[in-house]
């Protein structure tokens, strides 16, 4: 493992912000640390960089303990939410700063190559105070990559941007990270961002890592209801599995991983779709970008469901519901 963190604990006075956290990042892998506000994500990231003293545990790189290695000697690059560019330097000056400190040669060429990578070719002489939020974050990324860090740490790098730009930049950032095989730890509270950018995710709640695994695995098999709800599950329901098919109050759904016997399913709104029938009553509807979200009353309680934007469905209507396996998780 490139980065290996074990039993890491950080305290602020008598308050334990991170408790016994363990995580590993392989060479060239992107891990997203995902969790609600206040769960300890930034604290854990800062402890890994060496900016936060640790009460217990260890941070290792290629097996070597970093306890006595100061922040600037760890070879880590950092990107924060607000970029924190040097306002008195132009774009090239910002990006060349790290390489100059490290006495690296060929700096102009490096700046050009990095600007190309982040989609800002030709921006060398621009003043950073005149950049848009998205451009500034691209420059911050280029600056962090310039000294060729062995690990890139990104703390909510996109959360200062508006929704559309954020989505675009997440896709671009994923391309940069995976294209250049950069080893990275990303902190975010946004599951979509985590899933767009990361190979693996670790879910942090109240200072503890509750689950870590491949994106698809965590999404489809959350370990418990707390993790499931954080990942968008709004309904938890009991079912009975036979040969990879689960029968529950809403019908049958294929869940190949389910072992025969009683199981618990977590349904995201997209796990229940409008269908023929009259088993449910629509209570309310809200238009979303590419679907309509419904609250419906069923014999199993009030649940969330979705319908196509084109569907003619209104509060008071009686509808049927069908399970969609893509919106169904198997609780661990
Ligand atoms: N310097 C500090 N002194 C005391 N308590 C702190 C300090 N920094 C953070 N905390 C507390 O530690 C907990 C974790 O904070 P942290 O910033 O790591 O959470 P987070 O998951 O990154 O949250 P957010 O997504 O809101 O940034 C919070 O309860 C916070 O109030």
From TrEMBL:
Keywords: ATP-binding, Cell membrane, Ion transport, Iron, Iron transport, Membrane, Nucleotide-binding, Transport. PROSITE patterns: ABC_TRANSPORTER_1 (PS00211), ABC_TRANSPORTER_2 (PS50893). InterPro entries: AAA+_ATPase (IPR003593), ABC_SmlMolc_Importer (IPR050093), ABC_transporter-like_ATP-bd (IPR003439), ABC_transporter-like_CS (IPR017871), ABC_transpr_FbpC (IPR015853), Mo/tungstate-bd_C_term_dom (IPR008995), P-loop_NTPase (IPR027417). The keyword tRNA processing does not apply. GO terms for molecular function: ABC-type ferric iron transporter activity; ABC-type quaternary ammonium compound transporting activity; ATP binding; ATP hydrolysis activity. Residues 3-231 form the ABC transporter domain. GO terms for cellular component: membrane. Pfam families: ABC_tran (PF00005). It is an enzyme of class 7 (translocase). Its EC number is 7.6.2.9. It comes from the Bacteria. This is ABC-type quaternary amine transporter. It comes from Amycolatopsis endophytica.
């Amino acid at each position: 493992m490139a980065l290996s963190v074990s039993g890491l604990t950080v305290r602020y006075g008598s308050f334990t912000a991170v408790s016994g956290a363990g995580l590993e990042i392989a060479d060239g892998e992107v891990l997203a640390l995902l969790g609600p506000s206040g769960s300890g994500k930034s604290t854990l990231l800062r402890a890994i960089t060496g900016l936060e003293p640790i009460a217990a545990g260890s941070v290792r790189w290629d097996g070597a303990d970093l306890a006595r290695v100061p922040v600037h000697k760890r070879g880590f690059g950092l990107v924060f939410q607000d970029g924190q560019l040097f306002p008195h330097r132009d774009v090239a000056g910002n990006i060349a700063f790290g390489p100059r400190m490290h006495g690296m040669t060929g700096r102009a060429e490096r700046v050009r190559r990095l600007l190309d990578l982040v989609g800002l070719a030709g921006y060398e002489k621009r003043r950073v105070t005149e950049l848009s939020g998205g451009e500034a974050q691209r420059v911050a990324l280029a600056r962090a990559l310039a000294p060729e860090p062995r690990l890139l740490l990104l703390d909510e790098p996109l959360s200062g941007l508006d929704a559309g730009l954020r989505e675009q930049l997440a896709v671009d950032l994923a391309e940069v990270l995976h294209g250049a095989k950069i080893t990275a730890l990303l902190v975010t509270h946004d599951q979509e961002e985590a899933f767009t950018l990361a190979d693996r995710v670790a879910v942090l709640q109240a200072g503890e890592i509750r689950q870590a695994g491949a994106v698809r695995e965590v999404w489809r098999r959350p370990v418990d209801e707390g993790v499931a709800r954080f990942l968008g599950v709004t309904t938890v329901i009991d079912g009975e599995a036979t040969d990879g098919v689960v029968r529950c109050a809403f019908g049958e759904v294929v869940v190949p991983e389910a072992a025969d016997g009683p199981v618990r399913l977590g349904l995201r709104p997209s796990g229940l779709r409008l269908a023929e029938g009259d088993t449910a009553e629509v209570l309310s509807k809200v238009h979303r970008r590419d679907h309509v979200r419904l609250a419906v009353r069923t014999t199993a309680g009030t649940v969330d469901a979705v319908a196509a934007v084109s569907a003619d469905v209104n509060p008071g209507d009686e509808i049927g519901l069908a399970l969609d396996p893509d919106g169904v998780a198997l609780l661990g």
